[in-house]
Amino acid sequence: MQTEQLVELAIAALEDLKAQDILPIDVREKTSVTDVMVIASGTSSRQVKSLAENVLMKAKENGVKPLGSEGLDSGEWALLDLGNVVVHVMQPATRQFYDLERLWQGAEQSRAHHSQE
């Protein structure tokens, strides 16, 4: 399955169970680990677990073998490694604390900001 199709599948699985603030970030230029990170929020540990499990189930139904998953027990931050796509599902406070959006998107934005000064 191509990266774009896998991103769409992950987002659809997250939307099925009402994930909040779904954000795909293309990281091909920043890391060789994966092509796209999809970050989403769940309102409770139960929802985080359900969202993550739904993404894994949909991936498997479409012939994608997940390379790994972490955090399904605690439900605070679940990480799903689907190869070309890594999905992070977090509770809002955890997401805000780790601020992956800034980490993965911010490098270019901060360089652009400094060059304008």
UniProtKB/TrEMBL annotation:
Indicate yes or no for the key word Nucleotide-binding. no
Q: Which UniProt keywords apply?
A: Cytoplasm, Repressor, Translation regulation
Q: Domain of life here?
A: Bacteria
Q: Name one Pfam family in it.
A: RsfS
- Locations listed in the record: Cytoplasm
Is the keyword Repressor assigned to this protein? Answer: yes
Which PANTHER family does the record cross-reference, listed alphabetically?
A: IOJAP SUPERFAMILY ORTHOLOG, MITOCHONDRIAL ASSEMBLY OF RIBOSOMAL LARGE SUBUNIT PROTEIN 1
Q: Which family does it belong to?
A: Belongs to the Iojap/RsfS family.
Assembly and interaction partners: Interacts with ribosomal protein uL14 (rplN).
The role this protein plays is: Functions as a ribosomal silencing factor. Interacts with ribosomal protein uL14 (rplN), blocking formation of intersubunit bridge B8. Prevents association of the 30S and 50S ribosomal subunits and the formation of functional ribosomes, thus repressing translation.
Supply the name of the protein: Ribosomal silencing factor RsfS
Species source reads: Pseudomonas schmalbachii
Q: What lineage does UniProt assign to this protein's organism?
A: Bacteria, Pseudomonadati, Pseudomonadota, Gammaproteobacteria, Pseudomonadales
Name of the coding gene? rsfS
